[in-house]
Amino acid sequence: MKYFFAIISSLTLISCATQKTYWEHPEYGKLDGNSPIVSSDRDSCGVKAYSKGITMDGTLYTDRSKVISKVVEDSLARIRSGSQAEPEYWSEYQALEKESIECFKNKGWTRSK
Predict the structure, then answer these.
(1) Do residues 23 and 105 make contact, with C-beta atoms less than 8 angstroms apart?
(2) Which of 49, 71, 97, 102 has its CA 20 to 30 A from that of 41?
(3) What is the per-residue burial (b if ≥16 Cβ within 10 Å, else e) of 48-85?
(4) Alpha carbon 50 to its chain's center
(5) What does the domain layout of the chain look like in residue ranges?
(6) pLDDT by residue (tens digit) across 12-35?
(7) C-alpha span between 64 and 96 (Å, rounded)
C-alpha cells in the first residue's frame, strides 16, 4: 500500500509540472510555476538536497528527476510483484524530498490558491 501512495505522490509531482501552478513570493509576487525565477529556486533546492546523492539498488543518484523516475519504476515493479516491502532507500528518499521542499519554502515560496 505504501508503494501505491509513492506512485500517487510521484504522479502528483509530475502532474503539477504539467498543469499551471502559481507560486507567491514576498519579493516577486505571484508567478507561474514555469517562471524562470520559480524554476531556478526549485531546481537549486533539488540540486542542494540531492548533492550528496542517494544509493538505490547499488547505484548512486545525484539528479532529483532520475531519482523520482527510479522511485516510480520501482513502485510499479513492486505493485506488479505484490511486494509490500519498502525499498532500502525509502526513508532516505523521503528525507531528501522533505529537505528540497523545505528549502523552496525557506526561499519564501508558497503555493498560490
Answers:
(1) no
(2) 71
(3) ebbeeebebeeeebeebeebbebbbebbeebeeeeeee
(4) 10
(5) 2-111
(6) 666 555 568 999 999 999 999 999
(7) 9
What is the CA 62 to chain-centroid distance, rounded? 13
How far apart, in Å, are the Cα atoms of 2 and each of 13, 35, 55, 76, 99? 17, 33, 20, 12, 20
Whole-angstrom Cα distance, residue 68 to residue 79? 16
* pLDDT tens for each residue of 73-100: 999 999 999 988 888 999 999 999 999 9
Q: What is the chain's alpha carbon radius of gyration, rounded to the nearest angstrom?
A: 15
∠ Cα 46 97 15 (to 5°):
85
Query: How many other C-beta atoms can be found within 10 angstroms of the C-beta atom of residue 23?
Result: 21
32-69 per-position pLDDT tens digit: 999 999 999 999 999 999 999 999 999 999 999 999 99
